[in-house]
Amino acid sequence: MQDLWCKGGYYQLDPVQEAALAVSRPFLWSHKGVQSTVMQHVLRSRHDPVISYLLDTRMTCGVTVPIRLAGGDLATFTAIRADPRPGSRPKKGSSSPKSVMWAIFCTTPSMPVSIPASAPANMST
What we know:
- By secondary structure, the chain is an alpha+beta fold.
- The protein has one domain: Beta-Lactamase.
- Helix content is 22%, strand content 28%.
- It is built from 4 helices and 5 strands.
- The protein has a 5-stranded antiparallel beta sheet with strand order 1-2-3-4-5.
- Strand 2 and strand 3 form a beta hairpin.
- The protein starts with a helix and ends in an 11-residue tail after the last strand.
């Protein structure tokens, strides 16, 4: 995922990063169902490659915290939810299949500097 965002230029097409430039407060985002007001103002067809990738990899929603740095740079902290695999069953005593959360810290120009070791392989490539 890091190569795709950094070398592949997805950081320039990422609607979440674009939204982070426009607001100074944390915001929710989702590529399934109802979208937050912040994202409704940002989303355009140019974001389709990023949204398709996130849907394909089941990373459909999250929360992002924009962080303004000295000199005007932007960093973001994003927690991403990975949806359960299709057909997965809930664990005993649970009413829904397990979801997973990852956190990613990015700096301008949205270059990931930390990807958790527990992240799936497609997040680090």
